[in-house]
Amino acid sequence: MSAPAGQTLGLEMEMAVARRDDGASHPVDGYFARLARIKAGRGEAPDMARIDGRDVGLSVAAGESGLDNGFNLLETAFAPVAAAEGGLAELARRARRELEDAQLALEAEGATVLNVSEHPACTLDPGWYARVQVPRPIYRELVGHREWLHRVGIDAKAQNSPCTSVDVRQAARALNVVLGLAPASVALFANSPLESGRVTGFKENRLTVWDRMFRYSRYAGDHRLQRLPERPFADLGDYFRWMFGPGTASRCLPLAAEDGYKSAVGVYLQGGPSLSRFLASDGWPGLRTDTGGQVTIVPRGGHFEYSQFAHFLDARWRYRLAEPPALDELRAAWQRPGGIEDLYLRLGAAGYIEGRAPGAGFADAQLVEEAGRAVAATIVMAPSALQLGLMRNLGEAEALLREWGWLRLRDLRAEAMRHALDHDAVWALARDTLAVAEGGLADGERHWLDYARYAVDTRSTGADRLLRLWREREDDPDRLGAVCRARAVIPL
């Protein structure tokens, strides 16, 4: 098995931060300045990012080190790695170096990255949210306008998101596979059984965040867009009709053509029309986000690309176009089967599947002791290897999807969140999915699935190991501190 020409791999790695002394969730302070010095000392050239005078990240050639929604949740988005550059092995090397840098930069704050996909005992109250959230302009829309309960994610709910490039002609097929087989990834990489210092009854409680965040949204369609539809997507046009069609409400759109995602100045469309309805119009009245003034915004083809982040399923197709589509061409292409694919091929689309099901997972002392150093060293890259193998073995992955059935798989997601590999059907799906993924990888790549194999063979996940630690220390007055020190990340 060889990689398709031009295929690249990326990774968005989220990291929960806690104090080493008492285990409390920790908002970083001075972290990025120290991280910049570490990277500069290695000959890199960090470019610092700031919001309202506060450091919120830095960029180097290898990627962007930043924050997710709060100062207590680090996020690194690695630059794509081509197969010719080393593929999985090179991405693993970069991830290990980033973890080493992060741990070194955190030492001065008495903090550490935790091997969890959600901090085990952090408050979700409004005061903590106001103190810890990153002051991004987009949150004014999400919280103030759309009325999302954004603070339910402020306890460092973290994921390990593999990003695998895909030809636009195969994008819908690959997306269906990663979405449909997501219960296997949820279970294999489950790592969040605790919330607010309590056992939740879920092995991957992190994924309850979307239902809770959107349940009382101003627009009912927001809640719908975090639930898998009743059938796979026929093509990209079908995918975008689901995302942007009737029953949904367009996100805030940029006032100027050059403004990008998370732009400070946008327009709220009056009446909450769907994006498809807006794009079919000659113009739509709206309110500016900066002044509240009335304005009429004229649809452009670029609004389509800009709005691609509108849903919160377990996977997304993310893309860039070399040039924006003409609106008339986009309207016509959207009506034809395969029309978006044809149009986007002409426009130089470069896209990838962003997997969102795997919880964050890292090596720690407990995992090294129980599974061995070699297995522990593969935990960060195992989700990337699993997704890569499925996408390289797309025909067999689709056959597996048909065998299990789309609606059955949709129902199994809830079982995977609650029970992980303790659920017999989820365990069987994880075995089947792992076998198909192994078939898509080359001989020298399959060892990156060792952690996933260990989880399947032992039916033990990061959540199970964390629950054992938590229960063993039930009477310890330093329970949280002891558990978090035991779960401190070891870069391997």
UniProtKB/TrEMBL annotation:
GO terms for biological process: modified amino acid biosynthetic process. Pfam families: GCS2 (PF04107). GO terms for molecular function: glutamate-cysteine ligase activity. Gene3D superfamilies: 3.30.590.20. InterPro entries: GCS2 (IPR006336), Gln_synth/guanido_kin_cat_dom (IPR014746). This is Glutamate--cysteine ligase. The lineage of its organism: Bacteria, Pseudomonadati, Pseudomonadota, Betaproteobacteria, Burkholderiales.
